[in-house]
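Tutorial sheet, problem 5. The two components below are modelled jointly, 841 residues in total.
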Amino acid sequence: MWPEIGHFALILALIVSGVQAPALFIAARASTPGAGDFARRASILVFALVAASFFILMHAYAVSDFSVLNVFENSHTAKPFIYKLTGTWGNHEGSMLLWALVLALFSAMLAIQDRAIPPSLHILTLAVQATIITAFLAFILLTSNPFERFIPSPADGQGLNPLLQDIGLAIHPPFLYLGYVSFSVPFSFAVAALIRGRADAVWARLVRPWALAAWTFLTIGITLGSWWAYYELGWGGWWAWDPVENASFMPWLAGVALIHSVRVVERCDTMKAWAILLAILTFSLSLIGTFLVRSGVLTSVHAFAVDPARGVFILMILIAAIGGSLTLFAMRATVLKPTGAFELVSRETSLILNNLFLIAASATVFVGTFYPLFIDVLSGQKISVGAPYFNIVFTPIAGFTFFVAAIGALLPWKKASLGAAFQRLIYPGAAALAGAVIVAVMVDRHRVIGAVAVALIVWLAGGALVDIASRVKLFRAPFGDVLSRARGLPRAAWGAALAHGGLALFALGAASISLWKSEEIALMNEGDEISVAGYQVTLVSVEDIAGPNYVAERALFNAAKNGNTISLSGERRFYPVRGMQTTEAAIKPQLFGDLYINFGENSGSGWPVRAFFNPLVGLLWWGAAIAVIGGALSISDRGRKPARVRKTTQTTVRPETAPQEAGA
Amino acid sequence: MRRFLVLLPLLLFAGVGVFFAYGLKRDPSNIPSQLINRPLPHFELAAIEGRDEGLASMDFGGEVMLLNVFASWCLSCQIEHPVLMELSRQNAVPIHGLNWKDKPGDGKAWLDRLGNPYTRIGDDWNGRVAIDLGVTGAPETFVIDRNGRVRYKFIGPITPQAWEEELAPLIEELRGQ
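Model answer (structure tokens):
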């Protein structure tokens, strides 16, 4: 009976949001009194209903209720309990329900938020949110109902893809969804601003935390995803330019541009149409990402549930959301008039420049991702665009972005003097030069690219450091003074510096792994040795073991360097229920990188062994973590003016009863 | 100028949207096989446990035949299986089976339970022959003409509709050649 209640709750949620959306558009036009209360209650109700439905589905997974088709297809009694729960969103229907849940959650949060927000902007924004929710609930109910019954219920389920039985994979999609869906709020704000014909500093301050939150969640999701790919997929890399990876990376890039351009709107009331366009673009790219995974237009390790009916429905949502908002943009964007101005040498200019670089980067990823589709449609040829294209086209753009980002961080708003900026840029410049020389002499004498990459990375990190150092007057004021200045700095300043610094560390990891990775492949028997990056790697033994729902071969390796021996083990698992194999690579993090070994099937003459040394790969995760902390700090900074105001109760004035709380 | 600039994003999206709409009709996993119009690669496979007759590339030729890749762990194969049973009952076309990466005994148990539509079955326990054939997953079916050449690769379970519309006409045509 529970699944029916869940299904019913979902239908109710669709009805409520389907009524809420047009009602709010009308109410905003007529400035109906009480519309705010209605919007608030309806949003909370929709969230409660979707949440009930989601947790009922999760319950069906927890108790392995195979009379629910979705549970039967994606779960199995032999699965560890935690993966039964995470299996709720490890499939198409459940993941779309999670999407809707997060969307409803954010709408409810937006509905009850206590920051000063013009009522008509608030109601219009909630109206757009309700429209999106309605579309997605309709999609779930019409094409992907997770509560469909399967009677008579079978004794056991069909298991879950064993690749999905991993903690990294179980938790990275929810973070990606949090990121994708958070971008719906800036989108709704943008559409509302176009309808109202107004975007100002208040608007920008409202959008900023959502854009930052979306970016932060997306960063967490993407990092966890590549961490999973690195640990679980066993090919020694962390990023493959797979269509679905790209799908999450495009809104990330556009989101970075959005965060920075919203700052410009906030600070100097210009570039409004651009910021609105970016808000539309980021969410559009998030939707396209969903389309990509759900419709099967491109092949990918991630693409599950290839169903044309779903693809058509999502395409309709895409056309309505993106086409609708862009039509509105074409009609209304010219209404938005800038009031502020800035000079050529200013932080604004550098932000615009970097916005363009970021959009160019996003566009190159877009073109590379969809090129096979374009070619297939135009000529019927099947081609694939691989990492070389992305590395060649994307890397220089990233380099330019780094170069400008450090300058921008050190320029003041509106008007800057070149001389003063130059003085502050001397330190990062000198450090970058030193870094380049060190790399060219000590690490890599043959390729100039390594030196250039390290110089740009040091330059970016140096810019962030000098920014903070000059704000706290490091070395120029007494130490106690410096400390109190550091405490007094706005959290957004720390956030920006940490985000730039984290990005620099991340880039250092990415650059070293792609430039200075060592790799060795050999056919090995027990007792054989190979050497990689100075390590003498011995295959000690291979034995058969049995896990809870798989059987495996476990290989033991010893690696010796400078008299120290470390041992590490990897596995090749076979999951009989799905007939699938997975690998658990043998990984031992060392001071300057990871020793990473995996092995294949013994063909009779030995096990094929691939040993890598991945230098500084840990910086990928640490850099991303620091950037995430920066994002979180910036979110917690509510802007220069505290935007919190007392709620104005316009509803009823009760003359007889004195307000009792007043004295307390 | 500004009027045109604000219209530009919409125009770009319209262009992309057209491609998406067309893209939905195409199946990107349907990669044309490199083996089309080439002779079947040479192989000789033992029989699966509990059966006598294995399968070799020499068994093909003389008449149009199907080579069907199946496994007991493959769910789509179970969906396809009744269609193959029906075809073998009607003597529509000889079907040979390639039992792909199954554990000893599993293939036989599966066939004993569901019935055997295959004339001969080869045991490709380590997937070597499947690699030579460029098999991307199970089930997959190759149409082999009377000269032993691969003429078509069908990916996924054969449905009655796919049989009527794709495979049966092709087989008729090949028989006529």
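Marking note: Chain B touches chain A through 29 residues (CB under 8 Å). Full credit if you identified this.
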